Amino acid sequence: MPSRISPLHISAYTATSAVGVGKEAHADALAHSRSGLRANDFGDAPLPTWIGRVDGLEDVRLPESAASWDCRNNRLAWLGLQADGFLEAVAAARKKYGATRIALVLGTSTASIGETELAYTQLDADGNFPPDQRRAAVHTPHSLAMFVQQVLGIDGPSETISTACSSSAKVFASAERLIRLGLADAAVVGGADTLCGSVLFGFNSLELVSTEPCRPFDAGRKGISLGEAAGFALVERVQPGAPATPLLLGYGEASDAHHMSTPHPEGLGAERALDDALARAGLAADAIDYINMHGTASQKNDEVEGALVARRFPAHTHASSTKGFMGHTLGAAGIVEAVVCLLAIERGLMPGTVNTRTLDEGFGPQLKLEPATGEVRYALSNSFGFGGNNCALVFGKAVNA
Q1: Which of 9, 26, 71, 165 is catalytic?
Q2: Rounded CA gap, 29 and 35, in Å?
Q3: Catalytic residue among 294, 318, 341, 391
Q4: pLDDT at 401
Q5: Rounded Cα distance, 358 and 361, in Å
Q6: Cα 75 → chain centroid
Q7: What angle do CA 147, 151, 156 make, to 5 degrees?
Q8: 251: CB partners within 8 A, 6+ apart
């Protein structure tokens, strides 16, 4: 088992999704069980499904100095970075540590592939992209990180993690290692993913997309609702006298490599990630007050994760899936659901599971449909991706909170 790690401060954080921009919008939606899903209106020939679409992205304009990075994914990232004073928090960290000592670790599943799809519809007679689409840096998986690094003015190590739906959960693990090894004093972590044809039609080809709003852990669940989101957090070493912000206490990563798109039937990789996260946090399972489950509303994911939570956690643990609020935001799911856990710790708000009507009888009493309030000392976030890419994160209250 891994050794316990030194906690890290989450000194600033924010999220943008279908329920709104920033922490207040998310807290309000979670408290009132208000879903942001809508009937699919994305693209020229919308699939009959429901999506978590962020309003107003078409009207977002990047700073003039970064205009060459324009695409839906980078616009969403820019919209998200402006919320909750996050830009100012990074500017303060840059002044404190220096630009070269702040790392950037972002997760994304498709990056700016939506712009590449558009470019291929605009080929000239010779099969070339039009002049305004000859932006090689935009048409790469690292586009998001290069754009964010430029607009934040930071020059430390920069990574893109693309492990499907665990991408922006694993960013916390990478940031902890960079800081522990002395390669950075702080890190901006997060991710962004936007709706595009590859996502919608790709998941539909796998017969995973529901024609109705997703119903995680419901006995009659019919599949996922796709969404788009961005989220960011500033991670720093714990320092004396620092504000009492939530802490990153532990993480676990595992790859069960069982199947390209189906989890191991006994959840072996997911359970290993859980065990490693608890070990690094120095906690037992019964210490966890709230679990944000991956809970996609697909048959196998919910079956495996539901069984894992039922056998490992006491009945009083409050567990829920928030996919019914903003949809499955793929590479951005990890960071958005980490933000849900941080809100739970700071505000004592444990969300329910919207859209779900009748829990599958195979799941335990931990799964809750309605929100609740109460002290949340420790929260766990599960993120599981295709290929068995699993990540579990443990967050906790600051010791002097």
Answers
A1: 165
A2: 7
A3: 294
A4: 41
A5: 8
A6: 17
A7: 80
A8: 169, 170, 172, 173, 176, 276, 277, 280, 391, 392, 393, 394
Q: Crossing angle, helix 167-180 and helix 333-347, to 10 degrees?
A: 70
| Active-site residue, 294 included | yes
pTM of the model: 0.96
- 105 and 178 Cβ atoms separated by less than 8 Å: yes
| CA–CA gap between residue 155 and residue 112 (Å, rounded) | 22
Q: Which residue is listed with tokens 């048959």? A: 299
Strand ranges (DSSP E) for 97-217? 102-107, 158-161, 186-193
pLDDT tens for each residue of 190-215: 999 999 999 999 999 988 999 999 99
User: Which pLDDT band holds residue 239 (cuts at 50, 70, 90)?
Assistant: confident
Distance, CA of 295 to CA of 350 (rounded, Å): 15
Higher pLDDT, 399 or 250: 250
pLDDT digits (tens, 9 = 90+) for 119-140: 999 999 999 999 999 999 999 9
Distance of CA 370 to the CA centre of its chain: 22
What's the residue count for the chain?
401
What the block records as the tokens of 141 is 């998986």
